[in-house]
Amino acid sequence: MTDLLKNRRIISFSAVLISFLILAALGIKMLSSQTKELHQLQEQRKEIAVLRDEFLSLQQKFQTVENRKNLTNVQGVLQAVDEVFSSVGLKDKVKTVKNTGKRETKDGIEEEADVSVEKVTMNEMVNIFYRIDHAPMILTIKKVTVKQSFENPELLNITLMLSFLKTK
User: Are residues 157 and 149 in contact, defined by beta-carbon separation less than 8 angstroms?
Assistant: First the structure.
């Protein structure tokens, strides 16, 4: 009888030990799946943070453009070109300004012009581009052609195709 009691104790102890080991294995498996899910959620959180930063950057750029629409009372591309080049001090180097047309967009009326500037230095050209880029109106450069001047190779002749957006 004592053998039977010992066997029962061993069997019950073995059963408890096996069930404990099975529960521990299941717990470890659940824990590892939870850590995998945690890592996936952390990765998604990082991606969302990057997207949020990109969105805020784009929203700020959009707001800047929207604010530039309302800053000046420039009526057309010719007046915009005159304002840009006079602010840089190169109004006398502008040879021709040809209005190439208008087209209506959903945001307003877009006017284009070909501007020919002769005998400017590299620094003056950079100043022109900077001033166009930071003008208090929506003035964009669509096409640029830069050639050396025949009289002086250090000077440049520039042909610009500019676009001016006039809001409705």
Answer: yes
Tokens of 136: 């208090």
Which of 144, 121, 120 is closest to 132 using CA atoms? 144
What is the Cβ-side half-sphere exposure of residue 135, based on CA atoms within 13 angstroms?
30
Tens digits of per-residue pLDDT, 18-29? Answer: 888 888 888 888
Q: What is the dihedral of CA 148, 150, 152, 153, to 10 degrees?
A: 40
pTM tops 0.90:
no
Backbone phi and psi for residue 25, each to the nearest 5 degrees, phi listed first: -65, -45
Could you tell me the two tokens for 36? 């995998």
Task: For residues 118 and 147, give the distance between their C-alpha atoms in angstroms, rounded to a whole number.
Answer: 9
Q: What is the per-residue pLDDT for 53?
A: 93
